[in-house]
Amino acid sequence: MNLLGCEYEDVLRVSGKTGEGVHELLEQIVERIPAPKGNPDGPLQALIFDSVFNPFRGIEAYFKVVNGSIKKGEKVKFMATDKTYEADEVGTLKLKQAPKKEITCGDVGYIISGIKDAREVKVGDTITSVEKPADAPIEGFEEVKPMVFRGDLSCRVRRF
C-alpha cells in the first residue's frame, strides 16, 4: 500500500454502483475526520473566499464561518471596507443555493445583501456581526492586486 500511503486494514471496500459499504464509509468519516475548529458561541467571524455578481440580486459572497454564526436578517459588517449591510439571505451551497435561517461555525455558505459594487466585497475579508462584533479580522487578509494575463499565438505555425 505504498502507493496510497496507508495500511491495508484502513482501506474500505465501497461501491457507489451497488451501495455496498456506503454505511460503513459514512460511519468512518464521522469517526476519523475531526470536527471544524472554532467557537460556535463566539462573535461572528466569516472568511470570504469568493464572490459573484448576480444582476438581479447583487453580489453573492461565499464564505466559511470560523467562529459564531450568521442569521438571515442580521446586520453584518465587512471589516476591510467597514461597510454595514443586512443579510437579506444566507444559505448553504449545494447543487443549487439552499437558503437557511442560520449558518453556524464550520459551515460554508453564501450571503446576499443587495451589494451592487464589487469593490465592496473583497476576497479574504472578514464578515462580523454589528451587534456582537469580533475584536479583529481573521489573519492573513491582503488586498488583491488586479492583473491582466496575455497569451500570444503565432499565425505562422510552421516555424514552431
UniProtKB/TrEMBL annotation:
Pfam families per record: GTP_EFTU_D2
Keyword terms of this UniProt record: GTP-binding, Hydrolase, Nucleotide-binding
Translation elongation factor EFTu-like domain sequence ranges: 61-128
Gene3D superfamilies referenced in this protein's UniProt entry, alphabetically: Translation factors
Gene Ontology BP terms: positive regulation of translation
Domain of life: Bacteria
Cross-referenced SUPFAM superfamilies: Translation proteins
Similarity section: Belongs to the TRAFAC class translation factor GTPase superfamily. Classic translation factor GTPase family. LepA subfamily.
Name of the molecule in the record: Translation elongation factor EFTu-like domain-containing protein
Organism: Bergeyella porcorum
